[in-house]
Write a sequence for this structure.
């Protein structure tokens, strides 16, 4: 029996994007920021989880997602809180499972959907559609075809892994997975996690690249690319879309990783290392994190130099002397 080969064509635009991404991936790796800054890794993972869940209409904010993961009490829908816990457990498995294993896919789906869906870790037994909001983009294949189609997809990945660049292979997989829609729920979350897993096997820095944030930012384009592929019978449009968003993610990561460290005073570096992105901190909280006692020295040596370099921003910019003032890492 002839093996299944997903319909796609490698274009010049894809090759140009692959070359750009490969070059930028090497540049990000050279900074070693993700090895030396665990807060950076954690913050990016939280961004990935928040964005991937937000695409699926989870209403928890980034701060609420961060608090759930930190074990703090969050007031919100219990299912959405459980989705955060599940996604965190699933993403923590990155690098510990085989992204070319169909059994591992089912196992990770069981983690991703624990206590939130009845059919957890097993393929669906009913019809499903792919939706953009309330609009049905297309109906997925009937359930009796799903096991065979998923096995054929994983067989193709295993045979193509030495022939097709991981950037393209992972994007083709992402579209094919969404098209098959193998589970009753959690398909989008699993597709994004699995592409990250495939990319991470190529280069481990992708474990901490918030690609999901770029997908959320261009969510309409994400669904439009899926619809275009369904209409054309080829995954080319989606592969190009994903390569572009991976490229944008690396642009963001390069800026995040460098932070012009070589030109910053050590005090400013310490302040930035003590702060997570998008989290407001009071002066007292930052002094406590830095182990400082003198508010005057904190302002002179840490806070003001960081503000002047536009590396942090005031949470209440129109009231700079407010007793409730906070500071946010940009």
């Amino acid at each position: 029996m002839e093996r299944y080969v997903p319909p796609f064509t490698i274009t010049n635009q894809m090759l140009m994007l692959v070359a750009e991404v490969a070059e930028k991936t090497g540049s990000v790796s050279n900074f070693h920021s993700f090895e030396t800054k665990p807060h950076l890794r954690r913050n990016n993972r939280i961004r990935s989880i928040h964005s991937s869940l937000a695409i699926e209409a989870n209403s928890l904010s980034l701060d609420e997602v961060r608090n759930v993961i930190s074990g703090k009490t969050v007031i919100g829908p219990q299912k959405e809180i459980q989705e955060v816990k599940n996604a965190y457990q699933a993403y923590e498995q990155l690098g510990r499972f085989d992204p070319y294993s169909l059994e591992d896919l089912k196992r990770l789906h069981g983690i991703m959907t624990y206590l939130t869906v009845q059919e957890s870790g097993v393929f669906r037994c009913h019809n499903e559609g792919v939706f953009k909001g309330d609009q049905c983009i297309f109906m997925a294949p009937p359930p009796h075809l799903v096991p065979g189609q998923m096995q054929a997809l994983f067989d193709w990945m295993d045979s193509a892994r030495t022939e097709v660049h991981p950037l393209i292979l992972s994007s083709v997989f992402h579209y094919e997975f969404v098209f098959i829609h193998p589970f009753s729920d959690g398909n989008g979350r699993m597709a994004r996690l699995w592409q990250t897993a495939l990319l991470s096997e190529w280069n481990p820095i992708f474990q901490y690249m918030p690609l999901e944030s770029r997908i959320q930012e261009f969510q309409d384009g994400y669904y439009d690319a899926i619809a275009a592929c369904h209409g054309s019978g080829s995954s080319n449009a989606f592969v190009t879309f994903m390569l572009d968003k991976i490229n944008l993610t690396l642009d963001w990561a390069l800026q995040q990783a460098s932070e012009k460290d070589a030109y910053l005073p050590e005090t400013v570096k310490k302040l930035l290392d003590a702060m997570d992105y998008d989290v407001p901190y009071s002066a007292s909280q930052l002094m406590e994190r830095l182990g400082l006692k003198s508010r005057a020295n904190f302002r002179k040596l840490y806070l003001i130099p960081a503000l002047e370099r536009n590396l942090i921003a005031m949470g209440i910019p129109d009231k700079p002397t407010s007793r409730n003032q906070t500071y946010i890492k940009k």
